Amino acid sequence: MPPLPLAALEWGSGAPLLILHGVFGSGRNWATVGQHLAASRRVLALDARNHGASPWADSMSYPEMAEDVAAFIAERRLERVALMGHSMGGKTAMLHALLRPDAIGRLVVVDVAPVAYRPTLQAYARAMLAIPLAGISRRAEVDQRLAAAIPDPAERAFLVQNLVLEAGGARWRLNLPVIERSMPVLSSFPEPAVGAAFRGPALFVAGERSGYLRPEHHPAIKRLFPNAEIVTIAGAGHWVHAERREAFLDVVAPFLAERAG
After folding, report:
1. Structural domains of the chain ordered from first start
2. What is the pLDDT of residue 259?
3. Which of 20, 36, 40, 56 could be bridged to 85 by S-S, CB 3.0 to 4.6 A?
4. How far apart are CA 197 and CA 179, in angstroms?
């Protein structure tokens, strides 16, 4: 299947920075961070396939999503881009950098490692799919129905952002059946080719309260990204950029401002 033409939000001018969101997210989630970083760069926040305003497809493996990003870069004629990705987007960014190391100037990976995790978020997709949307007129109704499966109100608010309210009912902006089916694949990470590595500047940003990027993951990071710097943001969970935005920008903005080596 050919790559999909991804939708994107854009701010600023200068050297390009592509931002790749996590599962259930969209480029809109990165608007505040993107606008801040646009003071010195051309920032493009992409919607992944089956998310946001991008097209839907029947599959969403990391090689496919990395190809979507490559096609976006080629179509826009971007060169030596900086790439920043969170969670699912971080894995897409890592694979893209491993496959095309000469095309990436700098890499930022937010709270994820090149390892396999348990597909715990599959339960979120199933809970969302289980809600009958006919007659729904308020997001609060869906939030209430999700509460039993997803107790955290902040997580529910993040998910319910994807609800589109229309005359006569509501629909999800996400391709939930494919996301649910693909969750084991999204929780894993493709085994790179023997000797594959991105030796350019890389920054890995972990949330202190998150389990996604822990010290036991550092050897896997260093094997594939030997020049990686790993920083932990105190008090942050998995959504580091939203929970501790100023601290996140204090780390990421200077790294992105440096000249690529």
Report:
1. 8-117+188-257 (3.40.50.1820), 122-181 (no CATH)
2. 59
3. 20
4. 28
